[in-house]
Here is the input.
Amino acid sequence: MLDFDTFLKTDIRVGRITKAEAFPEARNPAIKVWVDFGDQIGVKKSSAQITAHYTPENLAGRLVLGVVNFPPRQIGKFMSEFLLLGLPDETGGIVLLKPDQDVPLGGRMH
Here is the structure.
C-alpha cells in the first residue's frame, strides 16, 4: 500500500499541448508532444503511444495531465521529459486524461 505522503511526491500538473509530431522511429506507434505547463515549469516534451485516438494534427491546444517529476527517459533519439497520463479504452487504445473545465496551466493535482 502507498501512504498519502508518498503519493504527494508525484507531481501531476495540467498543461496545454503546443506542438505534436509523428514519431515513426519509435518501436511502437507514438507521437511526440510538447506541453506548456505554465511559467513555473515551462514546456516539456514526451513520447506517447496515443495513436489509436489521436493524430499530431488534432492534439494542439488540448489540456492534458502529466507527471512532471520523473527523470527524463531516452526513447530512441528523443528525450522524454514527462509522463503523459491516459487510460486504456476497451481495446487498449489510450484516451488522454484532461480536466473538464479550463484551469490555469501548471496547476497541481490535489
Observations:
- The chain has one domain: 4-96.
- The helical segments are 4-8.
